[in-house]
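Fold these two proteins, one after the other.
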Amino acid sequence: MKKFLPHIIMGIISIISIVGILLMTQQKTANTKKDPKLDKVALPQLTTKIAKNESKLIMKTTYGDITIKLFNKYTPLAVENFITHAKDGYYNNTSFHRVINNFMIQGGDPTGTGSGGQSIWKGKDKSIDSGNGFKNEISTSLYNIRGAVSIANAGTDTNASQFFIVQNPENVSSGVNPNIYPTKIVNAYKKGGYPSLDGNYTVFGQVIDGMAVVDKIANAKVSTTSSGEKSKPANPVKITNIEIYKRSTIKKQVACATCFFELHFSNVRIIKTSTLETCVTKDGTVPAIALCKRLSPVSPITIKSLWWSFGKSRAITRFGEPKRT
């Protein structure tokens, strides 16, 4: 016994030290002074209204429709990736392959295995997706409250096509530190969510209608996977298609554009406005049709008409009316 006594004593000291460190860390977090600006940030998840800088879509499933609004302003990459995949039919007939009641439902994998799927930039733009996925977009305006739509990942900056909808309906506000969360979000967590996901997963949308469908999917019968997780649906619910009803009209979408005309570049100068770099000829005229290719990784857009107003000394740009896609 005496032989092992020093080891026992050292073990006890180690345990006491670890407990002490944990208590000090918790105390420090509890004493963190709340930034007054935190309660002034925009919280778009808390309203069903679709703002100009947001998009709206309806996800049609074999259990019913789920209406979602997307946050273009805060998560432009995630939204562009999701909308492009939706328009291309990438999610059509895919299933919610991972379902855990009181947690979330996960889909977006064309293989249905949980290990498939890729971003729209893979193999096309290494500056955004080098092959492992695109970067996280974390915002103090977005949280994993009940109904949040987030990108699933395999670690930081590994976002691809898979996503999940937070379903947990239980009050989890007691586990949320009010000093580092907006007060309205703390209250929102009383209606459910999964705050431990915050900061690790990109929240890019919010269910504004159809949570009953999400709950129905989450409550479906599941079996245990090979890894021991009880999350494999016995009869997987499928996404039949996704209809995009509104795309953001935020002006930032046309920022940093480079315009190309059928004339020599030596005869062109750049006029900068608050939202757009507009090409005009040196004599002040503007061609009727211009093809603008954005420097950001999104599809080219066509400007129908450009006018140069000498009186107001600014470029006026008119685009076609937003269309339902």
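Now the second one:
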Amino acid sequence: MLRAILPLALAVAFAAPAAQATVIYDFIGQCEVGCTGDATATIELLDSYVPGSAFTEADLVSFSYASSSGVFNAPADGAFDTASGSLPASSGVTNLNIDIVGSLNIFGLAAAQWTSLFGGIDDSGVEYTLSLREAEIPVPASLPLALGGLALLYGVFRRRA
């Protein structure tokens, strides 16, 4: 009986779910107009996006922005009218424009300035950093199960020996 279920148990134990990784960029800009302190944003793209290459609205998963003026979040699901530009391979200055459905919902970066227009938010500044977030390598959920199964099998075979 054990020989009949062993291959199935091992297949289930080692069948890890597919990782759902995305490419994430973090923005920090020094406020000069409209807000005080720092403004932050997170740009999340599909895992098929290659850092350092051009992107479009089809690559965007979500966008969020926060400053002393307020917070704005836009999930994908058709929320992006247009998006264009390129993001750096790791960090640096870039040209980028994200236009979110609705009037005056724009986030833009250029070589010497950044701008955010969302509802009541009208922020801008000159200095900013944009950096690629290090990808986390997920541990498959089945790994502890697999290790437990191997320990159990070791115990069974050792007992028989």
